[in-house]
Amino acid sequence: MEIIHKTIPAPKDCYTDTYLKNNTAFFDIETTGFSAKNCFIYLIGLVIRKDETLEIFQFFAENPMEEKEILTAFYRYLSPVSTLICYNGLTFDIPFLKQRTEKQNLSFSWENFRIMDIYQEMRPFLNLLHLPDKKQKTLEMFLGIQREDSYTGGELVAVYKEYEKQPAEEKKSLLLLHNYEDILGMTKLLPLFSYLRFFAGEPDITSAKLEETLPFGADSPKKELQITLNTSLPFPARLTVEKEMYRLTFRENHVYLFIPVLEGELYFYYENYKDYYYLPLEDMAVHKSVASFVDKSHRKKATKSNCYTRRRGLFLPQQADWFAPCFYPGKIEKSSWFEYGGDFLSDSKKLALYVKNVLSLFI
Predict the structure, then answer these.
(1) What is the full DSSP assignment across 67-93?
(2) By C-alpha distance, which of 105, 72, 108, 94 is closest to 27?
(3) In this structure, are residues 25 and 79 in contact, taking their beta carbons and an 8 Å threshold?
(4) % residues pLDDT > 70 (the chain)
(5) Does residue 308 contact residue 286 with C-beta atoms inside 8 Å?
(6) I want to staple 145 with a disulfide (CB 3.0 to 4.6 A). Which of 12, 26, 140, 211 is the partner?
(7) Mean pLDDT, to the nearest integer, of 259-287?
């Protein structure tokens, strides 16, 4: 069994200061397969923050007989750690470690650690990035992180088995490099939490205004609600995402939310159409108490499809009944529109509630 130790300076950025405190550690394991029953752990990587440095340890098993030794050493080095950060570790690494620990007649409790799984934490947001997959290397590429290692963990299983039979420094270097860049790469993924931090917090609205824009290919300008929000951590990459009819742009310390405004005539549908009459000449429904004064030839019993009144004005979209009354371009659907009043932008509580509801759609 070999322990490789290296010390490097801790990054000086707001993400490291926020999430990588003293006694916080990243870890990653390399195994000979997916089955903890039939395979074993040959390498464990560990990064521990210690003041202004990152202490990097790799516990390498030269053969299956040394698995117990690297597990023992790994657990010993975790003694000062209170928070563990991993990538998909809750699904793979930790269950695998637990089974192999039991197999080697060792005991270790994970109950005292706070576990942060970058994959699980980011999962609600990853779909918005439109990446080909959710692998760690793919997220690193999104952030512009370059690797020297070009292998996958699966490809290196064969390399390790060759090393078992005939140890060679070249093969060993490939194994160590992959694990080293995995654990170090995790520390570089911390900026991704700025996106989640934004969605988890209350919207910090700095401006909201109604603007006229000319969309690409459109013949006439359209009205659009443009909202600017602040965020506590800067975003690592400029990003624009769309959901339904809403658009979000992330840029440095700001988020820009763009919402279409419909100008025209929409319909409000009454719930109990049996209590209404439809007036064909006016194209509207009125309550029976009022319709009793209308000539019978100019009225008929309302149906669900024509029990409405019309309203002309400016409207904002909503994907549920966030605000009442709800208006529709045609038949009643899940999404609706609510009337944009002149006091909407000055009502901070109503505006914040609307923005929060819109943002929830993205995750």
Answers:
(1) HHHHHHHHHHHTTT--EEEESSIIIII
(2) 94
(3) no
(4) 99
(5) no
(6) 140
(7) 95
List, in order, residues 6 or more apart from 142 with CB less than 8 Å away: 129, 131, 237
Q: Which residue has the tokens 């820009």?
A: 256
Q: For the beta carbon of residue 163, count every other beta carbon within 10 angstroms.
A: 20
| In contact, 269 and 257? CB cutoff 8 Å | no
**String of b and e for 105-116 (b: at least 16 CB within 10 Å)?**
eeeeeeeeeeeb
Q: For residue range 21-50, what is the model confidence (pLDDT) as tens digits? A: 898 999 999 999 999 999 999 999 999 999
The pLDDT tens digits for 50-106 are 999 999 999 999 999 999 999 999 999 999 999 999 999 999 999 999 999 999 999
Q: What's 99's DSSP letter? A: H
Amino acid letter, residue 240? T
Which helix (H) or strand (E) segment holds residue 16: the answer is: helix 14-19
Q: Shortest CA distance to 29 belongs to which of 99, 80, 111, 121?
A: 99
Model confidence pLDDT, tens digit, residues 176-197: 999 999 999 999 999 999 998 9
Residue whose pair of structure tokens reads 């993205």 in the numeric block: 362
Strand, helix or coil for residue 271: coil
Global pTM? 0.85
Give the DSSP letter of residue 127.
G
Half-sphere exposure of 361 (CA within 13 A, CB side): 19
Specify the amino acid at residue 278.
Y
Between the alpha carbon of residue 275 and those of residues 14, 117, 292, 328, the distances in Å are: 62, 56, 12, 21
* Ordered alpha helix ranges (H), 87-241: 94-103, 118-126, 136-142, 153-165, 169-187, 193-200
C-alpha angle 103-108-111 in degrees, rounded to nearest 5: 130
Burial class (CB in 10 A: 0-12, 13-18, 19+), 19: buried
SS3 call for 285: strand
Strand partners, 246: 243
CA–CA dist 74, 19 (Å, integer):
22
CA distance 191 to 186: 10
